[in-house]
Amino acid sequence: MRICFLCLVLTTCISESLLSAEPPKVWIYSDISDPTLAGNNKEGTINDPDDVSAMAGYLLVANEFDTLGIVVASTHRDEHATTPDQAVWADQYFGDAYRNEVAALNESLDGYPADITFQQSCIKESAERFDPQNDYASLDSYDTVAALLNRAEQDDVSPADPIHVLCWGSLTEPAILVKHCLTTGKANVLNRMKFIAHWTNSSLHQGTPAHPEHVANCREDAKACAYLKSVAAQSKIVYHECGAIGQHGIVSGAPSGKDYYEAFRTSRLGTLFVEGKFAYGSVDHSDSATYWVLMPGFGVTLDDIPADGTNTPAVERANEQTFRKHSRRIHDELLRRSQLAAGDPAD
């Protein structure tokens, strides 16, 4: 068997460099829900299943992060008023697969937490949207917003070691959190968070130069989106807008064809990654851009994305092209970890 020594050196250096420092603290707000629940979108589901693939990919690289919370079904679908508890579904769907394979992952890479837990969003059943006239002084009705606030107030979180709030869908819950903090004199707590949003603005894709906000994740709760953008423009929060670089960089630049992705099916997490949303010959996990920017060595980092919520065409185009160039490397890393999760040591 021939072994690529340079590849081994590069992989080892990347892994060691990532794990040598404190891993970034992460909190995820996702509109993910059980894809077997019938809905009216083009996939026949309630919510776009791309977050299923993005979540499976996240679990494969979970040792690179300090996962503080994952909120699921943060969405505005009337059907969810009566659907089962989506945290229970996520624990069974993702949690069981993760717990089954975490020991094998730790044997090779180390640093994976023993378990990953999920919370059901406080807006899942109400489908509530952000009201700019509400001061949100009380969070009694918003337990998953209060949970993030409480975690951000703990001593191990600071502006130097903040919580990275990954926004994979609408911005309702982050907007409620920010409004609450500004209303109640907790602006200092906002310095302990960085918001990283997937495609809530783009002049190049869906949106236009005149209306970059005309994209799905912004329209989903337009008032929440506008509020956070305005607060970011005033430097009251750090808000990194990824735009469509996940979709048109990582996904568009991915290896194509079923043969490549069949190799993921040796592990449960790899199978979830492939089966979440396989379209046009590859996996749609575009929201994953929000966590790949936290991992050095894979193209785009937060230093490449303005912190004030802006996303100029030049910046988005450059980051899109960079991710496209690194897409094969990203997918090969996911495949390597998928094989390790199955107990199959990489060559």
From TrEMBL:
Name this polypeptide is given: Cellulose-binding Sde182 nucleoside hydrolase-like domain-containing protein
Source organism (scientific name): Crateriforma conspicua
Cellulose-binding Sde182 nucleoside hydrolase-like domain residues: 47-175
Signal peptide: none
Gene3D superfamilies: Ribonucleoside hydrolase-like (3.90.245.10)
InterPro entries: Ribo_hydro-like (IPR036452), Sde182_NH-like (IPR011483)
A Pfam family assignment: Sde182_NH-like
Origin superkingdom: Bacteria
Gene Ontology MF terms: hydrolase activity, hydrolyzing N-glycosyl compounds
